[in-house]
Design goal:
Number of strands: 15
Distance between the termini: 30 Å
Helix content: 25-40%
Order of helices and strands: EEEHHHEHEHHEHEHEEEHHHEEHEEEH
Radius of gyration: 21 Å
Bound molecules: pyridoxal-5'-phosphate
Length: 386
């Protein structure tokens, strides 16, 4: 603990000094399995040699110029991300929340351009979109919003995974401009909507000229076995937000958009000093390149299936376990009772996990994980859940 840090986190008693692959070491030399990846960030493992090399080379060449000039790797990464996601254009920033802010600005500007006085965005119950003022206003829950009134106006909240309710809201309000949601709710407890849910939302959006804006900050970059989770529903949204795994630990975020949404922001309407600089976009290019070379999607899918099978066989039948949910390597184990101290118990056993919604174990392990390493995680879980 440090008296000079604002107390925004209840920190757990560990100080890591080194990482390699799926492992971390603390200052006492203890080794841990990182089944959380710094919350879906270090998907290609800690100290990935190719990424370390590119950081070294690029930092010795040029880290930063300014968005007032052309930045070649930024242009290349924009093109790559657009090809992978089906979007037309990218805006680079430094975090997930900033990517969400960008999408909200796109929706509001779209509404303003259509002379809608108070454009509204439908957001979901159980959602999480980040901690900046617009992102926390779009987020559900007292935990995130309490103490920050007045929140940003213009959000209508709907139950997740409920198409009828959205249809009704769109009929009732003529000032809705967009729907913003996660394709799988991460912080909400790994909530996976029904197959076809996003397809239905896209249909509603298309017939009412609304933007479908998908927050892929946690679920993106192969975590669910596809580049982006919305691709399981075979749709192309109007806007998507990415961050986390794109930099494997180097801060980067992006808002990608298609058609009208891609041209809504014009010179002077948005910007970022650091967003998309030489260092972060060169790393982003390398991350995408490694993911493609290793067919990391296939590993996420295969290991996700193996994880699911092992969890079903060894964990699901425990009295303390209510439900196990996963899509690829986005994994939630819902327990019957509150288990907020379990992350610390796991830490003592050499495993890093996270507890969300007070009773759900969340794991977002590295996408390079193998069967033996999954067996090691299950063996620790087996002991601590009891
Ligand atoms: N959106 C989602 C779905 C997230 O899970 C998060 C962070 O966990 C964010 C947005 C905010 O990202 P950041 O913490 O990089 O601002």
């Amino acid at each position: 603990m440090n008296d000079f840090l604002m107390k925004t986190y209840n920190k757990k008693p560990a100080s890591f000094v080194k990482g390699e692959g799926i492992y971390l070491w603390d200052d006492k030399g203890r080794k841990y399995i990182d089944a959380l990846c710094g919350l879906a960030v270090t998907s290609l493992g800690h100290s990935n040699p190719e990424i370390s090399n590119i950081i070294k080379t690029q930092s010795e060449t040029l880290i930063h110029s300014s968005n007032a000039f052309n930045i070649k790797p930024q242009e290349e990464l924009a093109e790559k991300l657009c090809l992978l996601s089906g979007m037309d254009k990218a805006f680079f920033c430094n975090s997930g929340a900033e990517a969400v802010e960008t999408s909200i600005k796109i929706a509001k500007k779209y509404g303003n351009d259509k002379n809608i006085k108070n454009p509204k965005i439908i957001v979901m119950e159980g959602s999480f979109h980040g901690r900046t003022m617009a992102a926390l206003s779009a987020t559900d829950g007292e935990k995130v919003q309490k103490g920050f009134a007045p929140l940003l106006d213009g959000f209508i909240r709907a139950p997740y995974n409920n198409v009828e309710c959205i249809e009704k809201l769109v009929l009732e309000h003529n000032d809705i401009v967009a729907i913003l949601l996660e394709p799988i709710q991460g912080e909400g407890g790994i909530i996976i909507p029904d197959k076809g849910y996003l397809k239905n939302l896209k249909r509603i959006c298309d017939s009412n000229q609304l933007f479908l804006m998908i927050d892929e900050v946690q679920s993106g970059f192969c975590r669910t076995g596809k580049w982006f989770a919305f691709q399981h529903d075979e749709i192309t949204p109007d806007v998507i937000m990415v961050a986390k795994a794109l930099g494997n630990g180097v801060p980067i975020g992006a808002c990608l958009a298609k058609n009208t949404a891609a041209d809504t922001l014009t010179p002077g309407t948005h910007g970022s000093t650091f967003g998309g600089n030489f260092l972060s976009t060169t790393v982003g290019l390398k991350v995408v390149d490694i993911m493609q070379t290793l067919s990391i999607n296939d590993n996420a899918k295969e290991m996700g299936n193996y994880f699911q099978k092992e969890l079903k066989e060894k964990i699901a039948n425990k009295k303390t376990v209510k439900e196990i949910r996963n899509k690829g390597l986005m994994i939630g184990i819902e327990l019957v009772n509150e288990c907020i101290n379990l992350a610390e118990v796991a830490l003592k056993s050499g495993l890093i996990i996270n507890i969300t919604q007070d009773n759900i174990i969340r794991m977002l392990p590295p996408l390079i994980i193998n069967r033996t390493q999954i067996d090691d995680i299950i063996s620790i879980l087996n002991k601590i859940i009891d």
